[in-house]
Write a structure and sequence with these properties.
heterotrimer; A alpha+beta (349); B mainly alpha (296); C mainly alpha (266); A: alpha+beta; Rossmann fold; OB fold (Dihydrolipoamide Acetyltransferase, E2P); 5-stranded antiparallel β-sheet; C: 266 residues; mainly alpha; MetI-like fold; binds adenosine-5'-diphosphate; binds magnesium ion
Chain lengths: 349, 296, 266
């Protein structure tokens, strides 16, 4: 049985359904990301788990116990808020000690655990500082130490890195993963940043408009998206409108394409193809050919936009130390049919 | 994945919010100590009064007809409103540019000026008016100085005049005007001034065409405050006007503390409140029609 | 930022003189060695300050005012802080009505408040009592505290309180350890403003005091109406000095301009 389990959780604010029969689970010790665009109901979900938002319907089970009857203060969860929510009138050490104080832990033990927590986040030297005089990354670590020091059963993180600049964010991603492993705490992270979700987590739960889209490990959500939303939201993807014929053949712009053996019903479908899975070959030997209309140098990669009969396609080529085809060149594109993903057309149920 | 539980999750009733309860003590205090006294006063203004029997429990409009039918009271109400209007106008004329200049001062001098302008708010009106009494008296500072340099031969009469009251009231009320206009100025984009200048406007034009229109909502709200406070001011007219120059507030005080005709005094107070309210509403309607469209 | 031209500087200078004149005059007159109000004083003497100590009426009035302001500001704080928390964060029905009612003493002409309190206290048999006076002052100063505390409650980060709750803090602990320290500048600022307002109040108080509960402004007012000797100036000077000291304290604690302008966070 899973450690944390959300069962058809629903939250309505008046007419708005912020979270819609959302079910997923988190295994003990794992790191799970709740991923979705802003406004999709992630924070609301997290706040319901934390006990700060009433549940409209559905239930939340933690370690076999139904949380709905447990008030927030007795849930014993560690929470890092998006704004960090540090106590600005307390020093770093006092912030971290607060939860231990509430648990009536005696002073020497408290001091020991505060020290250990600050060491874990590499902040021991700032124990007596006030949060106001600290950088974003440091505040973030204080918030983390404060949440971890009470040894929570579950750590909830609401976009903890979104207030940091890009470089610091990458650094903190690694830190966060290290700290989570060392503390061994079951963690649920909320984020709208797909690369963050994939880099950090054991499993990713993708949601949109309050609904679950896919729950799987990062490789699977990226490589085998279940819906066109997931395929478009995680990384770049070419999305082609196609038709699954009654004869089981896939037609796109009047061409028959070979795809993976798919069990989809006949009708309109969407083909998703990652740009890095496409090879550039001579015009004659590709599955399709087209004219290069755009070429962008990204450092480690080239991005080409090719106008093909199937539609505009994006191709990512590794920078292998030579220049690629230029704008106006006609090139052929080819791919392993196994890499085509056939998804229900957007809008179809 | 989610377990297939057979029991349907039920709707959970939201807990009863406790926050409104925190208002309860203050609410109770205000119901007993504010609303009740005000209602009792309204009732009082309809009661009859007799010098021998005191306050009667009958109801009539007699007090109102007495106030509204007596030239003596007309004069008092007229004077009160004239004083309040003059004070408001002067406060607007001085306060608007003062706030604008204040806003442009460098921070050090500005904080000193803020202290000078707003600090008096924290000093008792009695003390401030006493200062004006010393300045304005027949043998006061201003008259003595003017006579010493030979500008006048006999002292100017400033104490016990409406003019003296207006002068002191401007001093008392102008901080409110400055606060209101300043708040409006802080909401404006400083770049609009630069924009006007880049289009060739001189400093006076910038003030009149760009700053003032944007400060108008502040001037309007400041005027409403100043008018309401001046029309009901007590200490300043009482000290500088004495028994000779009476306003509504001092007359009400007289009715309550000397004549002891409380119902009549209460009726005067109610008429004052009504008159202030009507003026304020009419005023904001008028100005809103003109200024409001740009700021709707 | 553009700087002021000579016209503006002259304007501000005259304006500053106008604002300072009555206060400077009062202070100047207080130091006169003579028996009448002269300015500038012909000498410097503390004669009229010593006279305060010999005047039991003023001493008693000052004592009443001090006591009254302390009690009224404190009681009003106890009423206003919970109300501000409810109004600032709640979204319950009738919230705006409650707020308008609690702010209304600022809108009602003080004369009207004065006669209403007089009528009420007389009917209740409390007229002239310190207790009655204290209740009235509490009502008058509550809006000042409410306004400043509301401003700091609005800036309050709800998630800080939630963080404390998630760590197991009780409602009372959250209030004492998290909420109160955060809104404390507003509370202190409001208390001081309430104290000064109560200490300075004349128009309402003049209706509801009797000789044993006469406050300093009322005493000063009736003294000015009868005689004019420099004693009123020396008493006023002490009151001004007292206010200045409070202003300096507030400036350190809260920022004077924030207090006077009555707006939120720094
Ligand atoms: N207290 C509230 N009242 C009304 N609507 C809300 C409230 N909180 C959130 N919402 C709405 O619920 C939806 C989900 O919000 P949220 O959970 O904050 O999204 P996310 O964290 O994924 O960006 C949004 O449409 C938001 O407007
Ligand atoms: Mg969010």
């Amino acid at each position: 049985m899973a450690f944390l389990e959300l069962d058809r959780l629903t939250k309505r604010f008046g007419m708005i359904t912020a979270v819609d029969t959302l079910s997923f689970s988190v295994d003990r010790g794992s790191f799970v990301s709740l991923l979705g665009p802003s406004g999709c109901g992630k924070t609301t979900t997290l706040q319901m788990i934390a006990g700060f938002e009433d549940v409209t319907s559905g239930r939340i089970m933690l370690n076999g116990r139904n949380l709905s009857a447990v008030p927030a203060r007795e849930r014993g969860l560690g929470i890092v808020f998006q704004t960090y929510a540090l106590f600005l009138h307390m020093t770093v050490a006092e912030n971290v000690a607060f939860g231990l104080e509430m648990r009536k832990i005696d002073k020497p033990e408290r001091a020991r655990r505060v020290k250990a927590a600050l060491e874990l986040v590499h902040l021991s030297h700032l124990a007596d500082r006030y949060p106001r005089a600290m950088s974003g990354g440091q505040r973030q670590r204080v918030a983390l130490a404060r949440a971890l020091v009470i040894e929570p059963e579950l750590l909830l993180l609401d976009e903890p890195l979104s207030n940091l600049d890009a470089k610091l964010r990458e650094e903190m991603q690694l830190e966060l993963r290290r700290i989570q492993r060392e503390a061994g705490v079951t963690t649920l992270l909320v984020t709208h940043d797909q690369s963050e979700a994939m880099a950090l987590s054991d499993r990713v739960v993708v949601m949109e408009k309050g609904r679950l889209q896919q729950e799987a490990d990062p490789f699977e959500v990226y490589d085998r998206p279940k819906t066109s939303f997931v395929s478009g939201f995680l990384g770049k993807s070419n999305s082609l409108r196609a038709e699954m014929g009654r004869d089981g053949r896939l037609r796109c712009a009047e061409r028959v394409l070979t795809g993976p053996a798919a069990g989809l019903m006949p009708g309109a479908v969407e083909i998703a193809l990652r740009p890095e899975r496409i090879e550039v070959v001579d015009a004659a030997s590709g599955i399709v050919s087209g004219c290069v209309t755009e070429k962008v140098f990204l450092g480690n990669q080239w991005l080409l936009r090719v106008a093909t009969p199937l539609g505009d396609m994006i191709v990512l080529r590794r920078n292998a130390g030579r220049n690629e085809a230029g704008i106006g060149d006609t090139v052929g594109l080819t791919w392993n049919p196994e890499h085509l993903r056939i998804l229900p057309a957007e809008g179809a149920a | 994945m989610s377990i297939a539980s057979t029991d349907t999750p039920r709707e959970v009733a939201p807990p009863v919010p406790r926050e409104p309860l925190l208002c309860a003590p203050a609410l109770a205090l205000f119901l007993v100590m504010l609303l009740t006294p005000l209602i009792m006063t309204l009732v009082l203004s309809f009661n009859s009064f007799d010098f021998y029997e005191g306050i009667g429990s009958t109801f009539s409009l007699a007090n109102y007809t007495e106030v509204l039918g007596d030239r003596y009271f007309y004069e008092i109400f007229g004077r009160t409103f004239a004083i309040a209007l003059a004070t408001t106008a002067i406060c607007a004329i001085i306060g608007a540019p003062a706030s604008y200049f204040l806003n442009r001062m460098d921070p050090f001098w500005r904080s000193i000026m803020v202290l000078i302008v707003l600090g008096p708010l924290l000093i008792s009106v009695v003390v401030r008016t006493l200062g004006w009494a010393i300045l304005l008296g027949n043998r006061g500072v201003i008259n003595t100085a003017l006579m010493n340099i030979g500008l006048i031969e006999r002292p100017l009469k400033m104490m016990y005049t409406s003019g003296g009251i207006v002068l002191a009231l401007v001093h008392v009320m102008i901080p409110f005007m400055v606060l209101a206009v300043w708040a409006a100025l802080q909401r404006q984009d400083p770049a609009t001034e630069a924009a006007a200048e880049s289009l060739g406007a001189g400093p006076f034009t910038v003030f009149r065409r760009i700053v003032l229109p944007q400060a108008m909502p502040g001037v309007l709200s400041g005027s409403l405050i100043v008018f309401a406070l001046s029309a009901s001011a007590f200490a300043t007219p009482a000290i500088l006007g004495g028994r000779r120059v009476k306003v509504v507030a001092t007359s009400v005080h007289d009715e309550f503390m000397n004549t002891l005709n409380w119902p009549l005094g209460a009726a005067m107070a109610m008429i004052l409140v009504a008159a202030i309210l009507i003026t304020m509403i009419a005023w904001s309607r008028l100005v809103e029609d003109r200024v409001g469209r740009a700021y709707a | 930022m553009k700087h002021n031209g000579p016209f503006a500087v002259a304007f501000l200078l005259v304006f500053a003189i106008f604002m300072l004149a009555p206060i400077v005059v009062v202070i100047g007159v207080a130091f006169t060695p003579t028996g009448f109000l002269e300015f500038p004083p012909s000498g410097l003497s503390l004669r009229w300050f010593r006279a305060i100590l010999d005047n039991p009426d003023f001493m008693h009035a000052a004592w009443v005012s001090l006591k009254l302001a302390l009690v009224a500001a404190t009681v009003a704080t106890a009423f206003a802080v919970p109300a501000a928390l409810a109004i600032g964060r709640g979204s319950f029905r009738g919230r705006e009505v409650v707020q308008s009612l609690l702010m209304s003493p600022l809108m009602i002409p003080t004369v009207v408040l004065g006669i209403a309190f007089l009528r009420f206290l007389t009917v209740m048999g409390l007229n002239g009592t310190f207790f009655g006076l204290m209740l009235c002052h509490t009502v008058i100063v509550t809006p000042f505290i409410l306004r400043l505390v509301l401003a700091s409650v609005v800036g309050l980060d709800k998630s800080a309180e939630r963080a404390a709750i998630s760590m197991g803090a009780s409602d009372w602990t959250v209030f004492r350890r998290i909420t109160l320290p955060t809104i404390l500048p507003g509370v202190v600022g409001g208390w001081v403003l309430a104290f000064i307002t109560s200490f300075d109040e004349l128009t309402v108080t003049v209706f509801i005091t009797n000789p044993s509960t006469t406050t300093l402004p009322v005493r000063l007012f009736s003294y000015i109406a009868q005689t004019t000797d420099p004693l009123v100036a020396s008493v006023s000077t002490v009151a001004i000095l007292f206010t200045v000291v409070l202003m300096v304290v507030v400036d350190r604690l809260y920022g004077l301009d924030r207090l006077l302008i009555g707006e939120g966070k720094r």
